[in-house]
Amino acid sequence: MDTLVDGELALRPMRADDFATMARWLSDPRVLTWFGGRDRPMSLLDVTAKYQPRLAADSATTCLIAELDGVPVGYVQFYRWRDHATDASVLGLSTLDNPYGLDVFVGRPELWGTGLGSRMVRLLLGHLFGTVGARRVALAAMAHNYRAQRAYAKVGFRRVRLVPGAEVHEGVARDEWLMVADRGSYSRAEVGTA
After folding, report:
1. Which residue spans traverse the membrane (predicted)?
2. Is 121 strand, coil or helix?
3. How far is it, in rounded angstroms, from Cα 103 to Cα 31?
4. Which of 16, 76, 110, 113 could form a disulfide with 104 if both were Cys (CB 3.0 to 4.6 A apart)?
């Protein structure tokens, strides 16, 4: 996959030399509050074991690093839900129309609340709806993560179903909102931001 660019923001394929940055982000309690859990910090060894297989050409998950002016600031991954059947069944997501899924986080807390997360998702949606030809993209947001839900809504996601106890996060079964964007809602969100 080529690098996706929007001004000073770029989403580029993850490389092995990004693992140290990922380990720094995924051991930061502020980031782990929302992604992974503070009870599961990841070392460089953990990150390498988890993400190295995802760099293979035949991986079902595409991993990208977000850069702002060439400096890594976040992570985003995408995949077809049918390749993650367990997740799809937990969320009650039909795989009949073959939706894509995505996960995202801004790894630098000082950039939270700046609109960066929305920009990252918008840039990826442009690729998925435009280049890949996806019709629908779905994600799950913890019910109490209002900032993430607002960021996703800005780019056309809508909450479609509250799924009780969908994810165990920090030892607690957390409710999640299944949120979905389709080509039409993405296009309207794009028009609304111009």
Report:
1. none
2. helix
3. 14
4. 76
Alpha-carbon distances of 2 from 30, 98, 182, rounded to whole Å: 31, 23, 23
pLDDT digits 0-9 by tens, 4-54? 999 999 999 999 999 999 999 999 999 999 998 999 999 999 999 999 999
Q: Looking at residue 11, what DSSP letter applies?
A: E
The one-letter code for the residue type at 89 is S
